[in-house]
């Protein structure tokens, strides 16, 4: 497991807070996070420690926070929203926002295979996103366009219906999921503009 130093940026942009309240779309990436909305006052830096402590995040790296929240066996939405991006995870409790880096050369891709019901998603929100198939046994293969197999394993979706994988940054390829003889396939991209949330895998 990679280890990263925690850095925190505090701001309370109302648009960003609202964007974190659900699985977000590509437009959210363009929302400025470093400007303060007139609808909410700025928050002292000391409050960030309280935010992290309240959710058991003190001492954890960004990658550890991503894994812990995605795999948390609890009903969504969680009290803490967390939007996974290319190189950071944005945390918000609705009042303050903290940014934790996702350093290194790995990209977090969380997938939610489904049979009948799905939702639009671009940046995976660990605190709000819910897939149809919770705790389901699946076979996942992730292959790059050059033919490199990044993932080839049996997995079980988490309580939120997703299952996540760390893959190399800046590659593209195909995700294949198999469950009970049904198969789903979708493209992925792990570059700076790539989605961290894949909800287009319908099992047929």
**Total domains:** 1
Counted beta strands: 10
Instruction: Describe the global form.
Output: globular
The average pLDDT value, as a whole number, equals 81
**Percent of residues in helical segments?**
10-25%
Q: Radius of gyration, rounded?
A: 17 Å
The largest sheet is: 4 strands, antiparallel
- Across the major sheet, the strand order is 6-5-8-9
Helix and strand content put the structural class at: alpha+beta
- So what's the CATH class? Mainly Beta
Could you name the ranges where pLDDT drops below 50 across 5 or more consecutive residues?
1-18, 25-48
Distance between the termini: 35 Å
Tell me what portion of residues adopts beta-strand conformation: 25-35%
Number of DSSP helices?
A: 3
Brief overview:
By secondary structure, the chain is α+β, with helices and mostly antiparallel strands. Helix content is 12%, strand content 29%. Mean pLDDT is 81; it is low at 1-18 and 25-48.
Notable features of this structure?
204 residues; alpha+beta; Immunoglobulin-like; 4-stranded antiparallel beta sheet; 3-stranded antiparallel beta sheet; 3 helices; disordered N terminus
